[in-house]
Amino acid sequence: MPDHPAIAGNEPTTVDSHSDILASGQPATTQDGLECRLVRESGRDTWFVTNRTGGPLQELAVPRASSVDVRRVVVNAEPVPWGEDDEQVTAQLEQPLRPGQGTIVVVHYR
């Protein structure tokens, strides 16, 4: 069975921002060291994120879909505190994301 294009085993390319991942639809590593893959579905965005930075992360910021309200944010199937601005949603992680470790962030929209 073929891989879903959003999670296929392609080597990620390096991009300037998460927004470039939205534009390309391909797995990529952002300049801030996060390897990301996005699956966009009706009413939610699912981000597969791997920490490629040199240290642990306590929060993850992902771009928000424009002109829709965020309803909730879930990390590894658990609701988490979050904040937002016009461009991104920031999930507060309960446990730090160590270098090389991955997680799934799902942003649900109204």
Give a brief rundown of this model.
This protein is mostly beta strands and 110 residues long. Helices cover 6% and strands 53% of the residues.
Give the overall silhouette.
globular
Strand content: over 45%
**How large is the radius of gyration?**
13 Å
How many helix segments?
1
Full CATH superfamily name: tricorn interacting facor f3 domain
Keywords, separated by commas or semicolons:
globular, mainly beta, about 5% helix, 3-stranded antiparallel β-sheet, 10 strands, single chain, about 110 residues, 7-stranded mixed β-sheet, Immunoglobulin-like
Overview of this structure, please?
- 6% of the residues lie in helices and 53% in strands.
- The protein is mostly beta strands.
- It has one domain (13-109): tricorn interacting facor f3 domain (Immunoglobulin-like), CATH 2.60.40.1730.
Spell out the blueprint of helices and strands.
Layout: E1 13-15, H1 18-24, E2 28-30, E3 34-41, E4 44-51, E5 57-63, E6 70-75, E7 78-79, E8 82-84, E9 88-97, E10 102-109
Parallel strand pairs: 1-2
Antiparallel strand pairs: 2-3, 3-4, 4-10, 5-9, 6-7, 6-10, 8-9
